[in-house]
Amino acid sequence: MALQITETRRMFSVHGVLNRSNAAILKRHMSRFLHPNQPLILNLERVLDIDTTAAEILQELYLHAMRSNQILSIIGMENGNILPTLKATKTAYILSHDRV
Fold it and tell me: Which pLDDT band holds residue 2 (cuts at 50, 70, 90)?
């Protein structure tokens, strides 16, 4: 399944498989929308699978936002398809505990 990104009021939902070949595209796309004082939500609850490279790229996006004082919330803590990979790569901390 191809990766699909939908946006509603600065909440971007990712649908499909997130892997090495499309995670860099997602990072580049999301970086264009990161601005100070404008919260952004990245919803991973509909991601079917994620690989380790994609998890590390999401971590890079999260750290970039933090260093730039930009508000980025990544949700998907309840998604059992991605949580094992994020825990294995020690990147699960990027997930927000808040639900929208």
Answer: confident
